[in-house]
Design goal:
The complex is a heterodimer of chains A (352) and B (329).
Chain A lengths: L13 E6 L4 E6 L4 E5 L2 E4 L2 H7 L4 E2 L1 H5 L4 E4 L2 E2 L2 E2 L4 H17 L2 E2 L6 E2 L3 E7 L5 H10 L6 E6 H8 L4 E8 L4 E7 L8 E4 L3 H15 L7 H11 L10 E6 L2 E6 L1 H9 L2 H13 L3 H8 L2 E4 L8 H9 L7 E3 L6 H12 L11
Parallel strand pairs in A: 1-11, 9-10, 11-12, 13-18, 18-19
Antiparallel strand pairs in A: 1-2, 2-3, 4-5, 4-6, 7-8, 13-14, 14-15, 16-17
Helix pairs in contact in A: 5-12, 6-7, 6-8, 9-11
Chain B lengths: L1 H24 L8 H30 L16 H8 L23 E6 L15 H18 L3 E4 L9 H10 L4 E8 L9 E7 L5 H10 L7 H9 L6 H20 L7 E8 L2 H5 L4 E8 L3 H7 L2 H22 L1
Parallel strand pairs in B: 1-2, 1-3, 3-6, 4-5
Antiparallel strand pairs in B: 4-6
The chains are: A alpha/beta (352), B alpha/beta (329).
Chain lengths: 352, 329
Amino acid sequence: MKEGSKKMADSEILHVGIDLGTSRSAISASNGERFVVDSFVGWPVDMVAKKVLKRSVMIGHEAVSNRTMLDLHRPLERGLLKEGSDKDVEAVKELLRHLLRLVGVDGNGNGRIPTSNVRAVVGVPAAALRTNKQYLRNTMKGIVDSLMIVSEPFAVAYGLDALLHTMIIDIGAGTTDFCVMKGRYPTEEDQRTLTSAGDSIDTHLLKLISERYPQANITIFMVREWKEKHSFVNKAPEKVVVTAPVNGVPTEFDITNEMKAACETLLGPTVETMLDLLSRVEPEFQERVRNNIILSGGGGLIRGLPEALQDALKQVGGGKVTYMADPVFVGSDGGLALAIDAPDTDWEKLSA
Amino acid sequence: MRMGKIDRAKRRVLRQAVADNLETIRGLPPRGVRPNVRRSRLWMRRLSIVALPVMLAGSTFLLSKPVTEPMFVVQRGAPHKPLAAAAQPQPQTLTTYEKVDPAALPLNVHRVVIDAGHGGTDPGTALPTLAEKAVTLDIAMRLKKLLERGGFEVITTRTDDHLIPLRERAHIANVSSSDIFISIHVNSIVEHTSEHGVETYYLGPTRDAKLTKLAAEENRESGYSLADMRKLLDGIYMDARRDESQRLASAIQSQLYGGLRNADPGLQNWGVKRAPFLVLVATEMPAILAEVGCMSNDAEVEKMHQPEYRERIANALFDGIRTYATEKK
């Protein structure tokens, strides 16, 4: 997906914000370019596959579409780099290089923006450990010149100028991140990360559908697609009918109840964590935070979720949940805003 | 006016974000965690210098008085209530103390937490005729009796079939200021049903994928969020408890294998291992997790049904604790 474009001089520094997501990764650059790709990387499994695909590596949707011929990797797990697998490290490097290529960066120059001119801010889950961040820094050596790693919900808050008395709930694929902004860089106490997120809905939904329709031949990829089209909590906006093969014959299945049950697994932990974080806000500011809750990330697309969270807020005096209509670039745009605002002196170069 | 405020706020958070990154680059621990721990330890050390003579004088005074109430808060019935009460500041008088059994005094290990794995809606390994939660509770209760008879004080994290989140188990252990923590579990290795053995874990990182999977299984129902995990895991590598936990694990594994192999010649010694079980991460005293058998093995399941075999396991655990406590004298 390509957004607007604006040229910049080669000698200029290119600032980028990257939302490195378990399911999708987005990049926003100071030259006006914005892209989002599926966080999948695949290499042809053998010479035949390489000959058919005519590529040595495939990234994003293209990789998912050709997965039968690829050694497919999803290098991020719960928003963090998978450790211990060289292939996953290589996959995340490919993914980052690909994102940067899309916004006009080329490691070898070749008349485009050289790596040495790139300053990046990358968002990671709120609960990422120092060791996770170190690991990411090491992985990004040689890919960008300077790097700043921040918590993803903080990047969202920064991009939205929502730095005071605001709660960000960022529901991604791997994690749901919560962050209360108190006019300072969030501390551990201001943030929470849950692993109940998009992926856990997919797994649950696959299990429920398989139990009800054991004859249906379905994959996690199909389930993910159905969820992205039809997810909801509480009252069903319409019947959810999908098509899947049974012994090779396309067959329709009503999965309304399964969709509702799977999506609502997110509701309990999200409400509980939201209320818990609210209760830790100083009493005089609680009402302001309650009325400034921002839902971002793909999970926010679940129909009925903002209303359900607002209903839950009634037990503590009511509140307002605002949903970002275009959640795809909220994190990367926030990262870009941080990158642009950070003074030159604050950037630490990544040693090659 | 509002813009001005936002700009100032932005400048401030930006500076803090940069500082946080610099700390990451320099490998410093997260702010607000490590320094506080250090401060609290320093404070404890200072307090102990002042408090020790007072405590010694107090205990001499107490031992010379005919008093009737328990000296330590020993848990009876539901574990969390008295402990929660103990955590509250309570007005204390001499009449709330009882003379301690002198047999326990020479030991450096006085108070033992026994944690029966799983419980309530979390059965652990569940077979048609037997659930892990029932086995661990039975062994825990037997071990409790043995320890109390041996002069130890015992805290149990659960005494009935209720799910206690791992977070609360650790809390129970920590507020009771216990000396060691013993978590009892039973293995299930469905890939190798013909094999069975015993193994004992202490806290530490592992690269073994199987152990990571096992830890993930045992860490379910933890009650911890990932934010808590960050705090907990940051402590793994630096924790001074690890050496003591390793010694405790060695003593228990040795007695467990030695005490059970006569009754079960096919039993394998799978040794002392490191793994990041949450309950071991969050406890503040030397802590181990013992997998006292293997419920994926039919022959062993049959044995687990026998009260005599479960008593034997409890005895082996007791011997391990006593060996460790004696070495500590």
